[in-house]
Amino acid sequence: MKKQTLIIISVSILFVLLVSSCVPGSGANTPKHPAGFFWGIWHGWIAPVSLIWGFFEHNVRIYEVYNTGWWYDLGFYISIIAGFGGISFIRKKSQKG
Questions:
Q1: Inter-residue contact 25 to 62 (CB < 8 Å)
Q2: What's the rounded mean pLDDT across residues 35-48?
Q3: Which among 75, 84, 87, 95 counts the fewest CB atoms within 10 Å?
């Protein structure tokens, strides 16, 4: 196995382990301590991972139920739009060259 492939696999496994502790529905947020703006940003960034993980664990969701409302929504949608918009921009740029 090439060294570069091994590094990519190692980083991917580390990323999944890191994300696993911060997914929506993990119990980190409660009605007394709801998720705020920055949690919304984080949950938007990891939404694809949460979606796939949610197929295997019923308590993991894409969106945190216990949130502060408008501020959480703003952070969530900013990161969703920026993430997927950034991917679209990269694809268009690489297709031109």
A1: no
A2: 88
A3: 95
- Give the chain's radius of gyration (CA, Å): 16
Q: Which residue has the tokens 């940003």?
A: 41
**SS3 (DSSP) at 67:** strand
Residue 35 near residue 64 (C-beta atoms within 8 A): yes
pLDDT in tens, 50-91: 888 888 888 888 888 889 999 999 999 998 888 766 656 566
Beta strands in 1-97 (DSSP E): none
CA distance 37 to 68: 8
CA 35 to chain centre: 14
Within 8 A by CB and 6+ apart from 31, the residues are 66
Q: In this structure, are residues 21 and 59 in contact, taking their beta carbons and an 8 Å threshold?
A: no
